[in-house]
Amino acid sequence: MREQTSFDAIVVGSGISGGWAAKELTEHGLKTLVLEAGGPVDPNADYVEHVQPWAMHFRGFGDRKALERDYPVQRGCYACDEVGHKFFVNDNENPYTNPADAPFKWFRGRQLGGRSITWGRQVYRWSDLDFEANAKDGNGNDWPIRYKDIAPWYSHVERFIGITGAREGLSQLPDGEFLPAMQMTAVETDARAKILKAFGGERVMTIGRAAILTKNHNGRLACHYCGPCERGCITHSYFTSLGSTLPAAQKTGNLTVRPNSVVAEVVYDEKLGRARGVRVIDANTMESREYTARIVFLCASTIESVRLLLNSKSARFADGLANGSGTLGKYLMDHHYGSGASGTVPGFTDKRTIGRRPNGIYIARFRNVKATHPDFLRGYGMQGGSGRGGWGRGSSMPGYGAAFKDSLINDLGPWSLSASGWGETLPNENNTVTLDPTVKDKWGIPAARIEVRWRDNERAMDRDMMTAMAEMLEAAGCTNVRTHRSNNPPGHCIHEMGGARMSKTSNEGVLNRWNQAWDVKNLFITDGSCMASCACQNPSITYMALTARAASNAVELMKRREL
Amino acid sequence: MERRDLLRATGAAAALSFFGAPRDALAMWSRVAHGGAILGGLSEQQLALIGAVADTILPRTDTPSATDVGVPAFVDVVVSENDSDEDRAAFVAGLDLIEARAKNAAGNAFAQLEPSARASVIESIEAEADRRAEPARTYWRLKGLIVHGYFTSEPVMKEVLKVEVMPGRFEGSAPMPVRASTPPGGGAHRHA
What we know:
Chain A has helices spanning 16-27, 43-46, 64-70, 128-131, 133-137, 147-161, 186-198, 241-251, 302-310, 401-410, 456-475, 540-559, and strands at residues 6-12, 32-35, 163-164, 178-179, 205-207, 255-258, 261-269, 274-282, 288-298, 336-345, 351-354, 361-363, 380-388, 415-423, 432-440, 446-451, 479-484, 523-525.
C-alpha cells in the first residue's frame, strides 16, 4: 500500500502546541498528519523518572565526557542529566550560531512529545496588563487580542489538561480552572503571611500553578510525588502531548503521526497563493518527500518555525515565507531570570516534608502593577521554594565519625527559603533569528543564527529582583539573607518567543489575530513565535490556548469555504 | 506502590503502543557492582587511603560503613571515568598530600593508623581555613564524593534512609519522625 501523502491538515511539531493543534483539528473531523523531526518515544520503556541514583553509573553526576562531546550546549539545562539527556538534541547534528558577543542557549528536544516531556510545567494566565503593555509604553506592536479573547480558551485548555493552583483573585494573574492546590511547607505558609502583612497585601506568595494532577483527571492518575518530572511520567500525571492531547487525537481515528520527519520547507503554490504542503526529509533515510494539505499549522517551536519560514523561499517570498511585513525573525525574546535571594529560616525544626513536590512557590508580579517603578518598565514574577538540607549538607559540614553520620541520617538541618525572578524582556527589533550563511544541520538545512542581547531595562529589573527578594526574606524573618545575580544568557530560560508575531495590520507582523499568516491564508503558526510580547509568566499555557483558538477558527473558515 | 502496579492502573493512558519498543539500556552501576573493571582505575594503595578516610568519616555503627556500601569504587568511577585528565591528576596529587600529612604527623600511611591518629589527621585538615589550598581542596572534594556515594548507594537509600520512590502524597508540614534509636557515642561532631 502506498503511503498517504494528502491530508486535510498538516501539523509540524508534536510538542505542547502541536499536540493541541492535532487534538482540536482531528476532533473537528480533519484528517491530520503530525510531523515530528525526532524519533518515537515509548513511555513504558523510555521514561526514567524512577531510576534511582544507585542504578546510575555516575550516581546522577552525568557522563561528563559523553555530555561534553554530544551535548555541549544542551548540558547547560538542568534536565539534560545522566538519564534525561536522551530527551535533548545532539548538538553536533543540530548546530546553530550566534555572534561571539551575544551568547545564546538554545535547549531543544526532538522526539515525539517534543519539549512537553521536559518542560517546567508552570502555567500562569496572562492578563490585560500584559496584552496592553506594548500599546501603553510603545515597545513592540499592539497585540491584536485582549484577555477576553483568550480567557475562554485558557479555560478550555485547563479543563482538559488539569492544572493545580490556588485562587488569589489577582487582576494581574487571573485565576484558572484549578484542581486542588498542592500544600505549601510550614515555612512557606508562614512567609506568605508575613510578606502579605509587611507589603500591605501587594506582594502575594502563592503555591505554584502547575500542569500536574492533584487528583485523577480525564483518565490520567494523580501525581505520586516521585520528584523528577523532567525524566517523564509513567502515569502521565503532568501534561505532555504524548500522554494527553495526542492520545485524544488518536482516538478520533483521524490522526497520522510520522516521526523522524524533518520538515525542510513549507511549499508555496505561486498560482494559488497558498501553502501546498511541506517538503520532508526522512531523518534516517535522508529521502525527500512532499505531503500536501488544505491547511498547515506550524508548531515546531519558536526558533524552528521561524527558521522553517526563512528556509521556505519562493519568487513571491524571497526573504522567507509570509514575510511581506519584513518582520519575520525579528523581536525574539526570552525571559531574563535567576536573580534573587535566599536565606535561612530559624525554627520549624520539628517539621519536615513527605514526598517530593514537583512545584514551588510563586510571587505574583508586583512591579508596575499599580505604582510606576522609576528604574524599569514592566515586571517580573518570582519562583522558588523552601527545604531542609538533609544528608547533602554533609559535603561541606565539618565532622566525622558516628555522631556526624547520625546527624546526616536523622537531622535534616535548618530550613532555607529562596526565590528568583522571571522577568519580562522588551520586544526589540534587533533581537533576531536569521539563517547562517554557511552552517547546515545533519540534513543539509541551513542553521539558525541567533542574536539576542539583554539591555538596560532587563538589567535594571535584575537588580530589583535581588533587593526585592531580600526585603521579602527579611520580612519573613530569615537570617543569613544573601542575594544572587544571574549570569544566564538569553535562551537559557527556554521561553523563546516572537519572530513571527501577531499584529493588528499586515505591515507590522506575520500573523493576524487568529494566528493566520497575513500573506498565506492557509498557514497558521501557534507556537511561541507568534508572541508580540513575552510578559513575565511562563508561556506554554498561552501557546496551548492560542493553538486551540486558532484551530477552531481555521475549521470555521474551512466550513465557510474561505479556506 | 510498585511501578508495575502503576502501569496496570493506568491501562488506557499508557496505550500509545505504536511508538516503538524499548531501546536504550542505562549506563548501569551494575558493571562495577558486579566486579567489572574501572577504566584506568586508582591503585590499591590509593583505594586503601580512600577507604580509610571514608570509614573514619562514615564508620560502621548500627548502619553500614562507607566501605560496606562500596564508596571507594564509586570514588574511583568518578575520578577515573568522569574527571578530565587535569582534574584526575590534581586529585591523585592531593591524595599523596593527604598521605604525606599522615606520615608527617603520625609516622605511617593513613590506612595503617589507629582510629585516634586518623581522627587527628582529619581534624587538622578540616581546621585549615582555606579549603581551596591543598591538601584541604582534595580532602573536601573527597569528602563530598564519600557522602554522595554513601547516601546514593542502594543499601543506604533502601535500608537506612528508607527512601520511598513513589510516596503517593506530599505533606508540607509533617512532624519529624520519632527516632528509632539514640545516636551511638564516639567521634567528634562539630556543626559549621
